[in-house]
Amino acid sequence: MPPPSDIVKVAIEWPGANAQLIEIDQKKPLSSIVREVCDGWSLSGAEQFALRYADGPQLYITEQSRCDIKNGTILRLAISPARAARQLLERIQSHGIDARLEALKELAKLSADPTFAAEFITMEGIGTLARLVESGTHFGEMLAFTLTAFLELMDHGIVSWDLLSLSFIKQIAGYVNQPMVDVSILQRSLAILESMVLNSHSLYHRVAQEITVGQLIGHLQVSNQEIQTYAIALINALFLKAPEDRRQAECTNPLDQQLTEMASTLAQKHLRSIILNHIIRGNRPIKAEMAHQLYVLQVLTFNLLEERMMTKMDPNDQAQRDIIFELRRIAFDGENDTGGTEKRKAMYTKDYKMLGFTNHVNPATDFTQTPPGMLALDNMLYLAKLHQDTYIRIVLENSSREDKHECPFGRCAIELTRMLCEILQVGELPNEGCNDYHPMFFTHDRAWEEFFCVCIQLLNKTWKEMRATAEDFNKVMQVVREQITRALAMKPASLDQLKSKLRSLSYSEILRLRQTERMSQDDFQSPPIIELRERIQPEILELIKQQRLNRLCEGSCFRKLGNRRRQEKFWFCRLSLNHKVLHYGDLDESPQGEVPFELLSDKIHVSDVKSVVTGKDCPHMKEKSALKQNKEVLELAFSVFYDPDETLNFVAPNKYEYCIWTDGLCALLGREMSSDLTRSDLDTLINMEMKLRLLDLENITIPEAPPPVPKEPSSYNFTYNYS
Q1: Longest dimension (CA), the chain
Q2: Least crowded by CB within 10 Å, which of 269, 309, 311, 383?
Q3: What is the full DSSP assignment across 485-499?
Q4: Angle between helix 655-668 and 676-698 (nearest 10)
Q5: CA 130 – CA 423 distance, rounded (Å)
């Protein structure tokens, strides 16, 4: 008979003594269990002790967390969190340097424990650490452990960042500004400044006054990618929290400016070229966190376009109308404006029609829709001034075509700008789990405008290849969108590579790719083939189910959601080979390959699993703040509900792993696998199987018919075909 569910068998260790093997009754108070353990070793003062896990993060066990204890867990008897906090607080203020160093080292480790952190903070421990930093008397390892403990304690969210003094901020900023400082101190200082900015509006202004772009640029030129990552993360944080008016501010010397003026900073060649040469084109592979920070920087840079994108043109604003006049002047420079008012008006109307505007009389009205608003006009003017030959060629080439085949430059440029804003998600906040940066956008000071210039030439070329007319406008834009998204997916390293990839994606190539990808829908539509598909489908579904379960048996690594991505914590989960138990446990770092079951201390019996939920229905998605709630994380979140009323919460590293795990868990529970990946795999495998079977039919060799047996002559004539 299995033991009752509220009885857990564990081993408990104590230094210098044999381990106790006991049964914990989960109905009994935790204090009673600790007292019994202390009695087993004849230890007095049971209220001064507590239980901790012996492996992994070694967290304290509380009444709230005791339900996580599993059979076979190894625990350790330790001094209570309150007692540990009191002792460490006394030791870090002692006069002995060695004793203080050991205390700070232990504090840095214990501070990640929420139970200990609450006790230490209650005793004004954070204030003590802040004063140690402000004193400026700590250096080297001692300072590094102090900053680590401070950051870990603050990350629990118990104390407001607003309580920090200006003296503390200046001291931390000083470590960042020093030309020579220990790497560990620099890392933690950058992380603390980033957390200040992200968690406090008032501290943002103070940090922005202490840190300049020039000081952070220096940290981008080092060989340590961790330091580079922290530096870019701080730039991103300051940029993200900057007031709207200061993001767009102009400045003269970007290296001496404060980071509150970000718009021109990110466009400066010096910063861009350093990121390109020292990070993107550096001699080290870019890690996931660096890729994320580059993606965030890319998004925030493009978001500077949002104001222009959402600004309507005022048809009565002469300065704005002058831009349209300039477009006309550049395109038709050889034609002067002589003649009367009516003649000039008629000539303008003709020219605006040749420029491809929808409203030939007052083209300003073409820019009143947002998006893309004035951003489209900015792009057109950039093309006309910086790529004048290309601009004139496109305009004159189309004005000389037959009316039905002319490509309307103005209308195309406006719609293309709107499309590029959608593709690059201009105006949207960065996604927490996304690493999708494009190296080519770091290769030019005006990357957005140059990207537009490449794409408008593509549009003109595709229009000619399709022999399109005005009625085909939307079809052309759909093809161009597909060409651009396919090219971006190849991650070209430069704008020249983008041009090369777009040249290979001609209209005929897009048609070929579409035809290939539509095989599953367009082929095999006859009734016999449909019947064959239905017969094959159960076999293929079973194959997919087995593949999903095999992947669960191999296991996956998941990242724990926290306040600081660079202090990443991981855990691993895998299914037992008999498909009856889910094993999981914490890891110190991301594993290379499979993790043995022995290292995964926790487990859930599949028979106890009640349901699997995804997205916003997950408990850990409801608990997170609105700032953290973005589409990317929601799409990767899922939770397992199991008896008694417990959950195991996941955030998959990518969409593929999300589909694998949700499908596999559904298969374990005997439910339908419904992810996009399953549907795609099902179609692909069915089509492959059908093609093989049809190929076998085509290759059947029909034996030759035997020679006819001579018969009596008759009045009928037969013609035999022996082929």
Answers
A1: 128
A2: 269
A3: HHHHHT--SSHHHHH
A4: 80
A5: 46
Amino acid occupying residue 157: G
Structure tokens at 401: 């075509």
pLDDT at 294 over 80: yes
What's the burial of 79, exposed, middle or buried (CB within 10 Å: 0-12/13-18/19+)? Answer: middle
Q: Which residues of 514-524 are buried (b: 16+ CB within 10 A; e: fewer)?
A: eeeeeebeeeb
The tokens describing 669, both together, are 């529970």
Name 627's Cβ contacts closer than 8 Å, sequence gap at least 6: none
Q: For the residues 543-547, what does the mean pLDDT come to? A: 93
Nearest Cα to Cα of residue 478 among 462, 465, 492: 462
Check if the beta carbon of residue 569 is closer than 8 Å to that of residue 586.
Answer: yes
Query: Residue 13 gets which letter from DSSP?
Result: E
Label residue 96 by pLDDT band (50, 70, 90): confident
Question: Phi and psi at residue 23, in whole multiples of 5°?
Answer: -110, 120
Residue linked to tokens 């922290």: 230
| Distances from the Cα of 285 to the Cα of 39, 56, 219, 515, angstroms | 56, 29, 18, 37
Which helix (H) or strand (E) segment is 146 a member of? Answer: helix 140-154
Whole-prediction pTM value? 0.74
DSSP state of 431: P
